[in-house]
Design brief:
The complex is a heterodimer of chains A (380) and B (609). With 380 residues, chain A is mainly alpha-helical. Helix content of chain A is 48%, strand content 4%. Among the domains of chain A are: 52 residues, no CATH class; 77 residues, no CATH class. The longest helix of chain A is centred in the N-terminal third of the chain and has 38 residues. In chain A, 36% of the residues are buried. Chain B is built from 28 helices and 5 strands. At the A-B interface, helix 1, helix 2, helix 3, helix 4 and helix 6 of A face helix 1, strand 1, strand 2, helix 3 and strand 3 of B.
Chain lengths: 380, 609
């Protein structure tokens, strides 16, 4: 190393032998780093040239990364993980499903029931009458809420983040809806300021992000952000937000409800000391029969309710097991979830009665008298 | 546009008269068939109906799914939807029309995608459709209207007054019907899908290994994205040619696609030129343009002229970049192992003495102000060309789209690239004039014997010209750096690496300029040259650009920015002051010459009077 080079690296600074030695070592290590970087970059550059000439290319992920089969693997990926999905507003849906898939079921990495390999993200498969309805809940409610024993009424619940498995605020979509429908929010939005506009945009953006970048919410946020808060266009867009948001309460929150540990406030997601039994069960497979199987299942599900919750335990106005207000559901959404239409439909279906569409969809048509609930409860 | 349709959302709810979306809007309304390893997804995007996003948005669910099967919950076993059944559509004015896609089925049967062919498809991962599902689903999902902005740019659908005139007669239907039909018609004036979506559709079959093998086809989608059409699709262009643009005749129905061997096929060698020259594409081109390859994937074109040209460029890259890489790495290795340049301390002392005098400092400046300005113009243009060109070369990388969108889209990016290219060519021309002026000036100088130097000798003495002696010195440098020689060679004002880089700029700018002009003016040039020349021009342009970028981006940047001799930046082309370490090790001959002219000796440092 020349004197000038040493000087360039601080050689002019005062220092003893040790300092000079360290400085020289530093320069040498730096040179090694440069060699490594140059070799690495050159390797990739030259490899690229050879590959383009010698190996047939493949279509890029923006084109072939979109799933074509609705299989088990797909249920374990978030839509945002589909390669190249961010490149396209309206990706081709898997051929077997004709309708648009603008979002996808969000897998839960922190749910023991699915991560163990025992249950799928769509776990309910048995009763045709209710399995799809129950699976619909699996996207926003952790299994234990309905299936684990709890004597607390209403249930102690918390939202947890699907990315981190930690307790979190209520979903941004719900908070946005609260903002645009609550009295206080309406007041603010009637005389909007830049801060009010920003709050709405932030909530919509967060809701879109939580829903794996849902395009419709993202666009809504962009539109709200692009107008002056004092303009008529802003008021029109606020109205559009009020109208559009309920279409996004479909289990795409990036969060789920779980039972809350009253001591720590954390969500209860794990089933401690069941791993060994799970392994035994999975290894045993179909060879497990009768009492042996039952015993093993009992060890796997020590907290399991004898009978899972019934739909109407929650979907009711009074004495609902889910404290909708406490966990962040705005009144308008609570009304939709606990209103008579859903209540009656559930009563009817769970009683094993077929339900004719026109009888419940049109308020102008007289509603059928709901049959008395029977003992039969939906199960997996 | 979105704002409008969102506002209209509430008005349009009548499109779900059976209120199926009450349940079917939920993502999880699904079940998994463990035996078939398939999820049965019953989810329907409600915004499709509520915002009237496509031509099927005004259909009720029971128009396709038999009412008697779905009107009861839980639903009975629902039969498969048949797209060729006759249904009753309500037209404007409340007239009813019987409608069916049956004619499409007949078209398909006459083409390459006959129902029999589709029904026999075997996919690598197993069947994509369930038993008896409509074969249309291989290509079609819920159809969406494309934005009218591309074909009706002057209509502002977000302006409420746009529909004022319509309201005179259609007040009760405004704005839902008019907005709906406007978008419907606008969508029909363009291809039904943007290019990237179109490629996704075709890729379902045309990239599947099992389908390709059974039909003895190449991966046409992979080669499509190597063409400019495909790159444009990846970079977000909404008007690029898609598979449908070429594989059916202009204006013809996409379902009439024929195999290329069929003499009626649009891509049959007899017809393909007309496809290229259609009014929407290259109307002024000569038929020769059709010889340019749209599906050229070099590895599958083994033995072709294009393949060997590409191979030659790779060899050229290895032959030019390789030695420079070896020199660059070995120089850094000298520093890493602590090997001292034997003459450096003495030359450093000489440099310090020179720097102590204003005249000496001036003599050590290797670049004149004029040259420095030229260098930074080159830097600016080269960077612009690299930033705008690389996204087109690597269109399949995620960052490319982001870069292109930052510039304002592919059209703007290309325009910048073209004009920066022209500026570079002009810059080269100006530099040639500068060289010529310098040459003439030096040729008029007198030798010590009093004779004029002459043009030839002046040319050989130009500082950037490589002479045979320097090739020998390069070998000596290599041996020295490899430890096979004790004494390093000495270089003058410009060392051999710099001279080769300079020659590279000449060669590269000329080649890139010529091939770039060919590619830019394909329609014009097609009247004079065959389309295969465009293939070669593209290969030359892209490989030469790649060579230039790796040479500059890796080696030149290390030499002038990151090397310990110059870190954090050589100021030779900014202030004119070359770092002392660099002068000592790489330009000792130049330093000694400068010292000699300034009257400074290396041994004593005394000044000659």
């Amino acid at each position: 190393m020349t004197k000038a080079t040493a000087a360039r690296f601080g050689g002019h600074l005062p220092g003893g032998k040790l300092l000079r030695f360290l400085r020289e070592i530093g320069v040498r290590v730096y040179a090694v780093g440069i060699v490594a970087l140059v070799c690495w970059l050159s390797f990739f550059a030259l490899r690229y040239l050879v590959v383009t000439l010698m190996f047939p290319s493949k279509a890029p992920p923006q084109i072939i990364g979109i799933p074509t089969r609705l299989d088990r693997e797909l249920l374990q990926t978030r839509r945002s993980q589909w390669p190249g999905i961010e490149m396209i507003a309206n990706p081709r849906t898997p051929p077997a499903h004709y309708h648009r898939v603008d979002g996808w079921i969000q897998p839960d990495r922190f749910n023991d029931c699915t991560q163990s390999g025992c249950h799928l993200a769509l776990p309910h498969t048995k009763r045709k009458e209710v399995r799809a309805f129950l699976n619909m809940h699996a996207t926003s409610i952790q299994c234990d809420v309905c299936h684990a024993q709890s004597n607390v009424r209403p249930l102690a619940l918390t939202w947890y983040d699907l990315d981190r498995g930690k307790a979190c605020d209520s979903p941004a979509a719900l908070r946005a809806y609260e903002f645009v429908t609550s009295e206080e929010g309406r007041k603010q939005l009637a005389e909007p300021t830049a801060a009010v506009q920003k709050k709405l945009v932030d909530l919509l953006t967060a809701a879109s992000r939580a829903a794996d970048g849902l395009y419709a919410l993202q666009q809504l946020a962009r539109h709200v952000a692009s107008v002056r808060p004092t303009s008529d266009a802003f008021q029109k867009l606020v109205e559009a937000v009020r109208s559009a948001l309920p279409r996004h309460f479909r289990g795409e929150y990036g969060a789920k409800l779980a039972l809350r540990d009253p001591a720590t406030g954390r969500p209860i997601l794990k089933h401690p000391e069941t791993a060994k039994a799970v392994t035994e069960y999975l290894e045993g497979g179909t060879s497990l029969k009768g009492a042996e199987r039952d015993a093993l299942l009992a060890r796997i599900h020590p907290q399991k309710r004898a009978e899972p919750l019934h739909c109407t335990d929650c979907h009711r106005k009074d004495d609902s097991l889910i404290p909708f207000g406490q966990i962040g559901y705005p009144p308008a959404r609570q009304e939709a979830l606990t209103g008579p239409t859903i209540f009656q439909m559930i009563q009817n279906i769970s009683a094993g009665q077929p339900m004719n569409l026109p009888s419940f969809i049109s308020p102008s048509i007289p509603q059928p008298v709901p049959p008395q609930p029977q003992a039969t409860q939906p199960s997996m | 546009m979105t704002a409008l349709v969102l506002v209209l959302g509430s008005v349009a709810r009548a499109s779900d008269p059976d209120n199926c979306l009450l349940c079917h809007q939920f993502r999880g309304l699904s079940r998994f068939d463990v035996d078939g390893n398939l999820a049965h997804v019953f989810f329907v995007d409600p915004s499709y109906v509520q915002q009237l996003r496509g031509p099927h948005a005004r259909l009720a669910c029971t128009d396709c799914h038999p009412r008697d099967q779905v009107a009861v919950i839980p639903h009975q076993t629902v039969s498969r939807v048949s797209c060729v059944e006759i249904c009753h559509l309500l037209e404007p004015g409340s007239t009813e029309r019987r409608f069916s896609h049956g004619n499409i089925a007949r078209m398909l049967d006459a083409g390459a995608h006959s129902l029999q062919t589709l029904s026999q498809l075997q996919f690598a991962q197993g069947p994509l459709l369930r038993d008896k599902q409509a074969l249309c689903l291989y290509c079609h999902d819920e159809p969406l209207f494309r934005s009218p902005a591309a074909v009706l740019p002057t209509i502002d659908v977000t302006d409420p007054r746009t529909f004022d005139r319509c309201e005179v007669c259609h007040a009760e239907q405004i704005p839902v019907d008019v907005a709906y039909y406007l978008r419907h018609i606008a969508a029909r004036l363009q291809q039904s899908r943007p290019p990237l979506e179109q490629a996704q559709v075709c890729a379902v079959c045309h990239t599947d290994p099992a389908v390709l093998k059974s039909h003895e086809m190449k991966d046409a989608v992979a080669s499509f994205v190597l063409s400019f059409h495909g790159k444009a699709a990846l970079l977000g262009a909404t008007n690029a040619a898609t598979c449908v643009s070429c594989h059916v005749h202009a204006g013809e129905n996409a379902h009439l696609m024929l195999g290329h061997a069929n003499e009626h096929s649009s891509v049959n060698s007899r017809n393909v030129a007309n496809v290229c020259r259609s009014a929407d594409c290259h109307p002024d081109a000569d038929p020769q343009l059709a010889a340019a390859a749209v599906h050229l994937d070099l590895p599958t074109a083994w033995g072709s002229l294009e393949f060997w040209i590409a191979a030659a460029f790779i060899i050229l890259t290895l032959g030019t970049f390789g030695p420079s890489l070896v020199l660059c790495v070995l120089e850094q290795v000298q520093i890493a192992v602590g090997r001292e340049h034997p003459h450096a301390p003495a030359v450093e002392r000489l440099v310090e003495k020179l720097l102590a005098k204003p005249e000496g400092r001036l003599r050590l400046q290797r670049f004149t102000v004029n040259q420095r300005v030229q260098h930074w113009i080159l830097v600016l243009l080269f960077t612009t060309l690299a930033i705008t060109g690389f996204p087109m070369k690597f269109a399949d990388r995620g960052w490319s789209r982001a870069v292109v969108e930052t510039f304002g889209g592919l059209h703007v990016t290309r325009t910048i690239h073209h004009w920066a290219g022209i500026a570079l060519i002009l810059g080269l021309f100006v530099h040639l004039m500068y060289c010529l002026a310098t040459l003439v000036e030096r040729s008029r100088e007198r030798t010590p014997a009093g004779r004029r130097v002459g043009l030839f000798k002046a040319l050989l003495n130009l500082p950037m010209v490589v002479n045979p002696g320097e090739l020998r010195k390069t070998c000596q440098l290599l041996l020295y750096l490899m430890g096979r020689r004790a004494e390093p060679p000495s270089f003058g004002r410009f060392n051999v690496k710099e001279k080769f880089e300079y020659i590279g700029v000449f060669w590269g700018t000329t080649l890139l300029g010529l091939t770039g002009a060919l590619l830019w003016g394909q329609q014009f040039w097609s009247h004079y040259i065959t389309g295969r020349i465009f293939n070669i021009a593209l290969i030359a342009h892209t490989y030469e650009a790649f060579l230039a970028i790796i040479h500059v981006g890796i080696l030149h940047i290390v030499n002038v920015v990151f090397s310990p001799h110059v870190f954090p930046l050589s100021r030779a082309t900014i202030t004119g002051d070359t770092p002392v370490g660099e002068l000592a090790e790489q330009h000792s001959e130049f330093v000694r010459e400068a010292a000699s002219k300034a009257g400074i000796t290396e041994s004593t440092g005394e000044v000659y009077d």
